[in-house]
Amino acid sequence: MTNPNVILDRVCRAVDRLIEASRPYHGLFPSMLDPRTGRMLTEIPDPIEGQRPWDRAYHGSNLIHDEPTLLTMTGLAAALGRRHYAQAVERYLDHFVAHCTNTPSGLFPWGEHSYWDLAEDRIGNSFAVARPDPDVPPIHDHLRQAPLWLWQAIAERDPDRLARFAAGLDWHIKDGEPVEYSRHAFLDASARQGREQPSCDFPRHSGFYIFDLAAAHHLAPEPGQLELLRRFLDYWWTRRESDGVLPVQTHDTDEVAGLAPSQTLSLACSLLEAAPLVESDDPELSVEMNQRAATYIEGFLAAPHDLDAGIFLLLYRRDGTRKPMPIYGSAYGVWPAAYIGLVALLTHRLTGNGALLRWAAAVARSSAATAFPDNVAVPAMDAGLSLGLMADLFDLTGDERYLKDGLALADRAPEACFLPDADLPLGASGIDWYESQMGPGFLLHGLARIALLAKMGPDCPIPADYTAR
Question: Which residues on adjacent β-strands are paired with residue 122?
Fold first, then answer.
């Protein structure tokens, strides 16, 4: 089994390449790089199967993609005394907050469809590049949760930018009745989307926005933040099923889609994390958030998962139709099971619910027992989140089998996710470029955390990353 120091050396070589690649761009990491030279790609490779062209950061940088890498770098700086890693994190965030966040809507150029264009030093619009259609404006979408440490870092630099972002979340709510929100909002205009446009009002996004607003209220309070939070909080409560599970969206057009237990748990977890941030000013709201989270957790657990068979449901219908999550080999809208395994583990930490711990442990067992498929390009995120889950289970329980399984996965993941002569990880197995949209940040985080837990035990300074929810 690989020595943890060897794993850490691999991670540090990748971080060194990213820092070098960021120097021409004021500390921001380019999204697509040659893994051998670390140079930003000028010619863009075709997307892998399951990757949408309009989700990529063309000649750009995306903070939501890079957040796990920044968290890892901060921890490595503490563990290994590499102060320049922490300085690189500061440089990245300094430039992003000061230079990239003053948008007309107040929302930030990050997430699923927008980013910061490094070549032209402006908001990047993946729709306009991928289609291309100059009439499609830049769109804000969260993609994953922005963690509290990131909001704290933004507030320390400019609390007004955080307050403006929180106010800008109102642009996600459409005009008219009945109330409808969209996971999308215009980024460079103070305007609402029309009701004729699809909302994709997924439950997990309401959790993202609720947590954003709670963090803003905690760090940069302004009038109206809790009222807007309440609108997102109430949106799905009246749409829940009798057992607490939520539909995937209000306008269901997919033949498999229906009920979304994983998104239901995502919302529950965000509520649990947000509740303490509003408790001092509105204790009744905090209690209500916790109570609703408990109902949603029941809905998640009531879904017909089959832990013994390794079936972890993304979606299902009452007629018996089921859509499970893969262990390795995710695609757009079909997450790897470890994605929700980590959310289940955090929700267990917050509630003590043993059923959630058993759910997360079952995903870890399947991750350890499953080989990487050789017929698909497996995004780096899949292995990274499985590593993160094993590391966190070891950290929580002290059970050595999770450490053993995690180190074994850290042995085999590089064969699929690194070229023999390159420092940067590949975006996915079977390709030859680094791409942040595929989640190599989670891979670096998972490798570094399992290695430091093996060396340092509970003194490991890299915390879990639960933003994939």
Answer: 117
| CA atoms 337, 340, 345, 348: torsion sign | negative
Helix (H) or strand (E) holding 117: strand 114-117
Q: What is the identity of the amino acid at 56?
A: R
Cis ω for the linkage preceding 178 (within 30 of 0): yes
Closest CA to 447 of 198, 75, 160: 75
**Rounded Cα distance, 11 and 446, in Å:** 10
Confidence label for 217 from pLDDT (cuts 50, 70 and 90):
very high
Q: Does pLDDT of 442 surpass 70?
A: yes
Say what the pLDDT of residue 369 is: 98
Work out the average pLDDT over 31-45.
Answer: 97
Cβ of 30: how many Cβ atoms within 10 Å?
Answer: 24
Contact 464, 342 (CB under 8 A): yes
CB 426 within 8 A of CB 434: yes
Average pLDDT score, the chain: 96
Min mean pLDDT across 124-133, 226-235, 262-271 is at: 124-133
Q: pLDDT (tens digit, 9 = 90+) per residue, 253-265?
A: 666 679 999 999 9
How does DSSP classify residue 90? H
The CA distances from residue 33 to 3, 50, 108, 161, 377, in Å, are 28, 20, 23, 30, 17
Q: Is the peptide bond before 68 cis (omega within 30 degrees of 0)?
A: no
Q: Which two tokens stand for residue 169?
A: 């979340």
Sequence-distant (6+) residues with CB within 8 A of 167 are 106, 222, 224, 225, 228
Strand partners, 60: 117
CA distance 145 to 142: 7
* pLDDT interval class at 32 (50, 70, 90): very high
Cα distance between residue 349 and residue 140, in whole Å:
31
Q: Which two tokens stand for residue 449?
A: 């955390």
What distance in Å separates the CA atoms of residue 185 and residue 193, rounded to the nearest whole number? Answer: 7
Integer-rounded Cα radius of gyration of the chain: 21
Domains detected in the chain: 1-140+325-469 (no CATH), 153-301 (1.50.10.10)
Q: What is the DSSP letter of 169?
A: G
> What's the whole-model pTM score?
0.97
